[in-house]
Structure formats: structure tokens, C-alpha cells
Design a protein that fits this description.
This protein has about 170 residues and is mainly alpha-helical. It is about 55% helix and about 10% strand. Strands 1-2-3 form a three-stranded mixed sheet, with helices on both faces. The longest helix is centred in the last third of the chain and has 36 residues, at about 105-140.
Length: about 170
């Protein structure tokens, strides 16, 4: 949209937002507004686009458009066309990235992911079982039953029937 003037107290950004809302309603939309009197442009993005794409990317789009408009060596029509084209091209890239990020894994990759997850789960279970067995074996190895040192009386004159001191060994 190209306008000739703005009403008092209204900025180009406010005007672009109001105009975009009137034209697109709740749908996703971008409006590039240009004010001839101030030779300025403003991009207005719908709330859905702000939610879908990183804010930094949309702000960068606004800055790139402003930089294109500051090149006064080009005629106005070419600057507006370049700004609009650059905005549309970058939005296509952002939409492609958004779809790739929000897409589930394709069928074969999903199968590989499930097999890997199952393998990792089984490996973890095996390691936990082996760890518990090793700890149990170490605990049993540390446990010794030692006979105490005790005096025993001789029983019925038997050669090994007592009277011997048993020592810990």
C-alpha cells in the first residue's frame, strides 16, 4: 500500500497495523506500507507470524527493508519492488524452516529412532543388572565369617577333643 499522507498523531507503523488488520482480519498477512511524504516504509506482520517465526528474523526483515529504501540512487518503484521481493523471499525461507522444524520424522527415520531407543533402553537395563550383580558380589566378598578365639576343655581324653586354642586366621 502506498499512501500520500497520514492523519495527525498517527505513525506509519500504526497506520500499517490498522490497515493490515482491516484487510486480512485474523488471517496471517504482511503489509508493506510506504509514506510518500516522509519517504519511509513500514512492515506490519500479523500476530500469527510473530508466533510462528523468531522475532529476531522479523525485525531483521524490517531493518533490511529500511536499508533498501535508503538507497536513493534507485528509483522509488525499484526500491519498493526490491524491498517487497526480499521480504517475500525471506518469509518463504522462514516458512520452509518452520515446516522442517515442526515435522515429525519421516517413516524410515522414525523406525530407526525406535530401534535406537529400544537398543539404548535394553543396554541401560543390562548395565543396571550387571552393576547390581557386581555390587552384590563385592559385598559378599567383603563379608568373612571368622571363628572367635576360644578355650575348649579336654573331652574324654581324646587326642583332638579339646584343650586347643583356636586362633583367628
Amino acid at each position: 500500500y502506498a499512501g500520500t499522507f497520514l492523519t495527525d498523531g498517527q505513525t506509519l507503523r500504526q497506520y500499517a497495523r490498522v490497515l493490515r488488520q482491516a484487510w486480512s482480519g485474523p488471517e496471517d498477512a504482511v503489509l508493506l506500507a510506504y509514506d510518500r511524504s516522509s519517504d519511509a516504509q513500514s512492515l506490519s506482520f500479523s500476530p500469527g507470524l510473530w508466533e510462528r517465526y523468531p522475532s529476531a528474523s522479523l525485525v531483521t526483515l524490517m531493518q533490511q527493508g529500511a536499508a533498501i529504501m535508503e538507497d536513493k540512487q534507485l528509483p522509488l518503484e525499484q526500491r519498493l519492488e526490491r524491498s517487497g521481493r526480499a521480504t517475500a523471499d525471506r518469509l518463504r525461507v522462514l516458512e520452509k524452516e518452520h515446516r522442517q522444524m515442526s515435522q515429525r520424522l519421516p517413516g524410515p527415520h522414525w523406525q530407526i529412532a525406535k530401534v535406537c531407543a529400544a537398543g539404548l533402553g535394553a543396554g541401560t537395563l543390562i548395565l543396571l543388572t550387571l552393576g547390581a550383580a557386581v555390587r552384590r558380589r563385592e559385598a559378599q566378598a567383603r563379608w568373612h565369617l571368622l571363628f572367635p578365639e576360644v578355650q575348649v576343655a579336654t573331652r574324654f581324653g581324646a587326642p583332638f577333643g579339646g584343650g586347643v586354642t583356636v586362633e583367628k586366621g
